[in-house]
Each structure stands twice: as C-alpha cells, then as structure tokens.
C-alpha cells in the first residue's frame, strides 16, 4: 500500500493515491474585448436528473442557435464532484450569466464568480477577464462541489455584442498622424505602432471623446550605461557540485517561476493586468537573476493561439502567437540582465505535470518530446539569456534505474543528449521522480536513484539534477510530524548528491503562502540548507494564482508580498542591481501630455504603454504602462517615462507611447531622445 501524496496545481492540490487520480486545476483565463451589448438571449432547458449510473454522470446541454452550454462532471465521488462548464458561441457575446443546481455547495470556483445563491441553486457570472467571447470561440469555467446531489444546468443568459471578433483587427489600426509641422521618425520606414484596442474592463463614457498625445524631446542624461547583468557573458557549465560561468566562477542562481505558457492561453499569466516588460523590470530590480519559464509541447508544435492579454497594456504583443511572445521575453531578459531556464512542463496545455505522470503519453511519444526539445534548442541556442533545458516537469509516475519503459533516469539521458546535439552549450536539468524503492517524496523531488543509477550524458559537465520541495500547507507529509529533522529528509532524497560530490542540485520550485508557523519554519530551515550546500533555486512563483502557494505578487499583480521578500532577502541582497531600473534615470524623463479633445461627462479611463522604436526599453528608457483616470471636466494628464544613460553612445533615438480608451478612441506620441 502506498501513501497518498500531493503536488501543487494552479488553484488546488491534486491527490494521487494508489488507485487513481482526483483533482482540480485552473482553466486558462481568457480576455476578449468588444462593444456594448445589443441583445439579450435567454437559453432555457429542462432539468435532467443525474442518477448514480456507473461512469461519469451526464448533464444536459443548454442550446440555442447562438450558443451552447455544456457541463462535464470530470470527477465524481460520493460526497462531492468537480464540474467543468464550456460556453461556445456562434455570435459575439459581451456578458453572460448561468443558473445551475450544484447539488451541493460550491467550495471552489475558477474563471467565474458567484452572483447569488439560494440553497444549492447558484447564479454565476463572468470573471473580470472573460465576459466577452468572440464569435466561433468558447470559454471554460468550473467548480468543486461539496455534496452528492445531482448537478444540472438550469438557464443561461448571454448578451450579444455587435462585433467582438473585430477587436483583434482594431489593435492593428495605425495611430492618428502627428500634429502639423512635427517630424516623427519611424523605424525602418515602418508606421508607428498602433494604439491599443479599448480594454474590456473600463467603463464606457456616455459620449466618445478624442485622445491626443504630445511628442516630447528629452536629452539623454549623462553617466555610464546601466549595468544589470547578473552573470559574466557566456554559457554555464558544471564543475564538481557547482554551476559555473564561462570563466569557471561559481554562479548563484536566485530565480523565480513565471507560469502560463504551458496553459491554454499560451502566454505568461498576468498580461491581462500588467505590462510584460514592467513585470520583468521588477523581477530584476528585486534581485532575481533568472526566470524559469514553463511551456507545453503544444506551444512548440502549434506556436500557441494566445488569449488573456490586455493589448492596451501590451500593445507590442498584438498579432503575435505564443512562441513569438516567448522570443520577446527571452530577448528582453538579455537586455536587463536576466537568464532564462526553459521548462517542458507538460505536453498538452493545462496546469501541472502530464496527467499520466510520465514524459510521454496523451498522444505524445518520447520521439515527439525529443523533436519538440530540439526545435526549442534550434530556436534559442544562440540566445545568450537561455541557460538550459529542464527536460520534464515532475515525472511522478516514472521509475528510476529499473530498465523499464517508465525508467526516467534512462530517458533523461536520451532526451538530454538529443538537446545537446543541437545546443551543446546548454545545461541539461533532470528532475526526480516521486517514488524510489517504495520510498515516497514530493513529485519531481525523489533523486534517491541517482546514487546507483546516475544519468549518462555525452557531456557530463552539463548535467544538473533538480528537485521540487514544498511545505506542510501544501500537504502534511509524514516527515513533518514524525520527528525526523528536515535536513535528514533532504539529505536522503537529494542533498546527498551535493554532499557526496556527485554533482549539483537545483531547486526548480519551492514556495508557500508563508501564513503558518510550520511553513515559516520550513522556509527558514530550507534557506539555511540551501546556503550550506550552495544550491541554486527558483521560487514558485511570480504569479499570485498558484492555489497552493500564492506568489511573489499579490492578487492585484502589482503589490509585492513582503513576507516573501523577508524569506528571500538574504539571497536577493547579493544579486540585486545597485540601483533599481526606475531609479536609474537620474530624474530625467520624457513627459507625454495625454489630452481629451473635450471634457467628459463622467470618468474616462485611458490605458497607456510604451513601445520600442529605435530606443530600447531597459537600455534607453524604462518600460512604462498603466491607466490614467480623467475625472469629469478634466482634459489633460501626463505620463513620465524615465530615460536611462547609455554611456555616451551618441545619436538620436525614439520610442512611442500608445493610449486607448473603452470608447475606441486611440492615439500615440513619439519621444525623441537626443544624444551627444
């Protein structure tokens, strides 16, 4: 009999026991934009009682010519269930509600909100990011239910919009021409970037107003160019039990996970709330020096049809697919001194590791995984920011060293060598399993098999083992209460690899809400253990929407949680840039005036974001994005963008500020930075 054990998911734990799998995972957040509602459509259907028939209970759909609502009881046990609901539409929708009988109490919900409840009857509405649905697409939401009654859909109400599908095209509209007599350069003869489409979450004013943006000129501040690089140039290798730089000096990786590319939206999460460069600037300014970026095999195979982006805050991402957005993130990481570890998190898009706990399956063979890794190696091998390949996330159902079809230690050698054929400078990161010789540990954290069955690579100086470790709040593992010192548990499962001189170990994930004494004790002891062994690490996660651990950021995607910084401060203090990005501009700034052509009768929210021209964010100026709120009667606001010294490189450069409001008004301005 094997003990149950948990791994984190993005909203709730998933229980793996001897007999099966049950769990809840977050569905991808989707963000669509469009005009106001034009029509209300009511969908009705008779209730269908769900009996106790063998297999998953069936729930009747709600259907009309414009929309279909389908429910799937994904997991069902005597006292509860997990239900996924899909809304597919043939017409653009701008708002929806669903009434259902849960047959119990909804104890967890994702991608929807509870608007009202009476007994087991609930009325659900959209989250802030998925009230609009493009024609011919669908959204998903779901819930965990405590109670054994029958689940049924009762009614659904959708508001038809005029043309939500047109929002993507709107993002490609060129901005208005500059004021007469103003010479505005554009890079390479191209047009200035489009102003963003109107954000879905801002209130539409009673009457549309025109927007204007000034075109400031600012002198480059004196001083040396910003020094943000955390490591010496060149690839990493292994020497003994340490990862070293190109000069043979040990490196201290203080990293953080930014997940989302592996999910159904194919981009890092949070782009519905914040600018992507702004988040990366903050990561570097706080002292993190490496990003671990999970992705799915499907991203590599298809490029990734993205959603969940507020293009008003991220106008330079409009029209790009997921892999192209990853290109931008990798390049910008190099600009601001971050390194990147690529993590094959799962084959199909979703949350957590592969459902079968192996590196193959679910329609993918080992050969497919190798091909996808080699495609990633071909794409990024010449990118100086990328340090290596985390071959597979948490292969928890794999074995190690037994020579079977599920022998992950052997497979890691095959996959790793295939990666090194294409990218010989990369590190190859090999995670552990969950069980070895009957002994259970965290998913991806059990490396006991390395002692007798080490991974064999063609380049041994590129091999790094990796583990994941979590606190009691994620799951009350037996070693948290049986009196064993944590150091003894860590030594047995992975620390011995470093202590015995076998090789380096990297902690790919550790994290916690840090709300309990037990979790704080775990974090303090693991911090000391990391320090004593010189182990590199990645905190899980930057994202706040990890249900088991939370993140560095609070739910607003902006506030940095001080409790996380307190734990990590001893590490970050050694890798933090001397001056944060935003403070490096010595008070020099390009000030854009943003104006309305007439006072509005009510508040108007205007999104804004900078976009590169010949000037580069992180090198010439600080990426800036946000929202301006014009109160009734106001017509003028300003946005100040810090300008960075470049060490006297000389020559004029320029960048853009693009703005847009919910009425569809948009504009852009160009800032010119004059050189010596």
Biggest sheet layout: 8 strands, parallel, barrel
- Shape descriptor: globular
Order of strands, widest sheet: 19-20-21-22-23-26-27-28
Overall strand count: 34
Tell me the structural class.
Answer: alpha/beta
At the fold tier of CATH, the topology name of the largest domain is TIM Barrel
State the share of residues found in helices, binned by percent. Answer: 10-25%
Q: What's the gyration radius in Å?
A: 26 Å
Number of helices: 9
Distance N to C terminus: 74 Å
Mean pLDDT across the residues is: 84
CATH top level assignment of the largest domain: Alpha Beta
Number of domains: 3
Oligomer: single chain
Low-confidence stretches: 1-56, 162-206
Strand content: 25-35%
CATH superfamily of the largest domain: Glycosidases
Please tell me the CATH architecture of the largest domain by its name: Alpha-Beta Barrel
């Amino acid at each position: 009999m094997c003990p149950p054990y948990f791994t984190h998911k993005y909203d709730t734990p998933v229980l793996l026991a001897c007999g099966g799998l049950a769990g809840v995972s977050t569905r991808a957040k989707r963000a669509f934009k469009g005009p106001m509602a034009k029509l209300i459509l009511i969908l009705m259907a008779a209730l269908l009682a769900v009996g106790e028939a063998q297999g998953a209970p069936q729930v009747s759909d709600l259907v009309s010519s414009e929309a279909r609502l389908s429910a799937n009881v994904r997991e069902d046990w005597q006292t509860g269930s997990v239900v996924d609901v899909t809304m597919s539409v043939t017409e653009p929708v701008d708002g929806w509600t669903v009434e259902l009988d849960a047959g119990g109490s909804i104890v967890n919900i994702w991608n929807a909100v509870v608007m009202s409840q009476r007994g087991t009857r609930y009325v659900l509405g959209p989250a802030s990011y998925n009230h609009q649905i493009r024609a011919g697409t669908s959204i998903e939401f779901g819930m965990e239910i405590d109670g054994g009654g029958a689940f049924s859909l009762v009614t659904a109400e959708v508001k038809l919009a005029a043309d939500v599908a047109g929002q993507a095209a709107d993002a490609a509209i060129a901005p208005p021409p500059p004021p007469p007599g103003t010479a505005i350069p554009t890079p390479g003869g191209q047009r200035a970037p489009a102003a963003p489409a109107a954000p879905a979450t801002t209130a539409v004013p009673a009457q549309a107003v025109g927007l204007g943006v000034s075109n400031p000129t600012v002198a480059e501040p004196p001083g040396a160019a910003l020094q943000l690089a955390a490591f010496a140039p060149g690839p990493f290798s292994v020497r003994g039990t340490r990862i070293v730089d190109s000069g043979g000096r040990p490196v201290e990786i203080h990293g953080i996970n930014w997940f989302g590319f592996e999910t159904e939206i194919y981009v890092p999460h949070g782009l519905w709330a914040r600018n992507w460069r702004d988040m990366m600037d903050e990561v570097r300014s706080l002292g993190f020096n490496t990003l671990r970026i999970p992705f799915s095999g499907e991203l590599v195979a298809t490029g990734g049809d993205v959603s969940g982006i507020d293009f008003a805050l991220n106008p330079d991402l409009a029209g790009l697919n997921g892999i192209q957005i990853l290109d931008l993130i990798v390049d910008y990481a190099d600009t601001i001194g971050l390194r990147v570890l690529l993590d094959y998190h799962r084959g199909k898009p979703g949350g957590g590791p592969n459902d079968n706990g192996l590196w193959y399956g679910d329609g993918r063979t080992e050969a497919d995984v190798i091909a996808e890794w080699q495609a990633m190696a071909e794409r990024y091998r010449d990118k100086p920011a990328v340090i290596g390949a985390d071959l597979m996330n948490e292969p928890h159902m794999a074995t190690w060293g037994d020579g079977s079809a599920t022998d992950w230690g052997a497979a890691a050698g095959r996959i790793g060598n295939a990666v090194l054929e294409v990218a010989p400078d990369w590190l190859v990161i090999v995670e552990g399993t969950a069980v070895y010789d009957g002994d259970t540990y965290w998913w991806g954290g059990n490396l006991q098999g390395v002692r007798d069955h080490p991974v064999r690579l063609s380049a041994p100086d590129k091999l790094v083992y990796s583990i994941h470790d979590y606190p009691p709040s994620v799951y009350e593992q037996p070693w948290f209460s049986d009196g064993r010192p944590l150091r003894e548990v860590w030594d047995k499962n992975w620390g011995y690899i470093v202590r015995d001189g076998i090789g380096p170990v990297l902690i790919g994930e550790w994290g916690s809400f840090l709300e309990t004494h037990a979790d704080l004790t775990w974090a303090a002891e693991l911090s000391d253990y990391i320090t004593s062994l010189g182990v590199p690490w990645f905190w899980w996660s930057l994202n706040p929407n990890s249900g088991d651990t939370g993140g560095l950021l609070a739910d607003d995607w902006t506030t940095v949680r001080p409790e996380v910084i307190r734990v990590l401060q001893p590490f970050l203090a050694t890798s933090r840039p001397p001056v944060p990005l935003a403070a490096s501009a010595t008070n020099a700034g390009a000030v854009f005036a943003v104006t309305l052509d007439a006072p509005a009768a009510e508040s108007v929210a205007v999104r804004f974001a900078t976009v590169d021209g010949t000037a580069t964010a992180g090198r010439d100026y600080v990426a800036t994005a946000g929202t301006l709120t014009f109160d009734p009667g106001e017509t003028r606001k300003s946005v100040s963008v810090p300008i960075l010294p470049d060490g006297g490189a000389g020559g004029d450069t320029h960048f853009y500020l693009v703005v847009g409001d919910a009425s569809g008004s948009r504009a852009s301005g160009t800032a010119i930075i004059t050189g010596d």
